[in-house]
Amino acid sequence: MTHSYAAAVTDSSVTRSRAVGLPLRTPDLESLRLLVLVADLGSLGRAAERLRISQPSASRRLSTLERGLGLVLVDRTRRGSRLTLVGQTVVGHARRVLDELDELLVGAGRLRDRREAELRVAASLTIAEYLLPAWISELRGRRPELYIGLQVTNSEQVPELVESGEADIGFIEGPRLSRAMSTQLVAEDRLVVVVDPAHPWARRHEPLSARELSRAPLVLRESGSGTRQTLDRALHLAGCERVRPLVELGSTAAVRGAVIAGTGPSVLSELAVGGDIADGRLIGVDVAGVDLTRDLRAVWPMGRRLVGPAAELVTVARRAVTGDRPTRGRDRSAPAEPAPPSPWVPARSV
């Protein structure tokens, strides 16, 4: 009973469509081009030659168009092909459709050229300060015409900028994201506990315990930064509570300066304090039972293929870490695709 009813409804719908003259098939663009050429050249054979197809193929295509629209568009005679009055009306519509399509393609080409000439990057502070300048310099060496705009923020906000379209590619640090994204590992970093030389920890001979670190008042980056996320997660995995901030500051440089001035201990990227430790301005303090390594990742929206300058920048970043260089003779201007991305699902807050 149900099947018969559905069939009856379908048959009725088709009958109504034919009755009111609705097309049974949407015309394809090449058939419309053929029809317009027949109107312009007055010959199906010449129209077929212009499109570089055989005349029998052109005839079949035109017949399919007529059947799809339910109209006779062309009178075929020995002296040539002539549009019917209905065909002339349809050609007017077809010209407008093809003109709009040409405008769409030209506009898309301009947009593509503009996108190929610029790259908008969002990055966390540590990556922006200590890694991106070298990556951007290498990419600009390959593409001197490329404009690169950089937005620097904390790791929590980078995915929002990328997903909203304000940035083409993002770079983050830290163990988790605020939303599901496609990501690509580009480097690894390590956090270091640092103090000024006059601090009591500078004279310790044994490592700090995880509990000592978690209970110490620290000079820290703001909540939402990749550095803070990494520290909180590492202490959570070590069975400790989150740290108690003595001072919260919005940049790595500000935190580093506060520690050098004797404000208190901190946990900072080795990229940021390696030179200070080597020169004796800061002292690195070992910590037992806490993993302070972290991944640095490129991020972009799920389902979007990474191409053009954004893909090239990711490739440059990965090569800067691995030391790989393009093979001799390779086209350096061609976009190099990164390794297949891995979907990143937001981790539970710690």
What does this structure look like?
The protein has 350 residues and is an alpha/beta fold. The chain starts with a helix and ends in a 6-residue tail after the last strand. The N terminus and C terminus are likely disordered.
Q: What's the mean pLDDT score?
A: 81
What structural category characterises the helix and strand content?
Answer: alpha/beta
The low-pLDDT segments are 1-21, 324-350
Per DSSP, the total helix count is 13
What does the main sheet amount to?
8 strands, mixed
Overall shape: it is rod-shaped
What's the end-to-end separation, in Å? 58 Å
Instruction: Give the H and E element order.
Output: HHHHEEHEHHEHEEEHEHEHEHEEEHE
What Rg is obtained from the alpha carbons, in whole angstroms? 32 Å
Total strands? 14
Strand content: 15-25%
Residue share in helices?
40-55%
